[in-house]
């Protein structure tokens, strides 16, 4: 019975890593679709998000099943509660990647990002992808300081978003009202995606920190 | 012991209702701040969001404490898991109201919304506020069909957002690039706020439906 339980927990953890990889891949593809005006790739990302939604639902069911059947305490409880929240973060990241892809699909064959803004969007896509990769790596190591390592990239993404908005405002070439609206939303999608990636890593730190501390204090709490 | 437990559950439920009321009030005030170019009111909403974050943290702690100490099953487990997610929805609604208020504060003494777009933003604020009020009422009745009643308002908000974007694109009076960027984000904040309000009501339906069914099947699951 306990062995099955530990297998279930371990598989739950592995599933979180896989879904983080999927959220990473979705954003990388969506960014390529929007920069390359690639409708086929955009539609692939959009279709994949449907599958992802079902997979998150399945992960949530597992978490609730574990809570109901095993009545976990201490660090296991923290892992499962954190996992439920991570599942929500991951689902949102997938949806934000889909929104990026939807812009590419809706504007096709026009391009969403004028040439003057391509370097900024390229950089935002790269940093956001790195954040998701960092969250995935954090889940592999379960290191208590996992979140700290993502801070620099998160700051960089905020700076890139501010730069993007300044570029739009300062009359960058090829920017009309329609472009400004699309690119404003695009910037917002990347920023939200990055926030969720940082949130993932924070939850890993919370579970990992708890693991270190749990034998000492047994304190229960949750990161904001 | 069981009596304390039921009191804790009942107080947990009551707290969800209060926090929904707070999220409602924050949006109503933020909308007034943005339409009346009222910096003082905007700053009140911004300051309140800090308090709200602490209150959500406290609610999460309660939920995790209940899971750890009481190891609830069936409908109580569903209520607490749903409550954790509702807390996340509510925190997000508060932050979105803050973002609306931040636009008012950052642009002051300029107005964010030009006269030509005021009716649309006024309507979006009213519908979003009604959705939050509907979610609160659903939590008071815990009726299984609570979510269905919010669908019409959610559709209306989507239509208003589409109208807003059409107005921006069709060269409504007073719309330059900067205005288009602000108002695009404003529209997005209302739309996200409304989605979270609908999500709250769906979780109520999930808990309420489970209560009706739980004696029969004992089935555990979770709405997407």
UniProtKB/TrEMBL annotation, chains A, B:
PhoU domain location: 18-103, 122-204
Cellular compartment(s): Cytoplasm
Gene3D superfamilies: Phosphate transport system protein phou homolog 2, domain 2 (1.20.58.220)
Family matches, as InterPro entries: PhoU (IPR028366), PhoU-like_sf (IPR038078), PhoU_dom (IPR026022)
GO biological process, one term: intracellular phosphate ion homeostasis
Keywords: Cytoplasm, Phosphate transport, Transport
Ligase is among the record's keywords: no
Listed GO CC annotations: cytoplasm
Subunit relationships: Homodimer.
Name the UniProt record assigns to this protein: Phosphate-specific transport system accessory protein PhoU
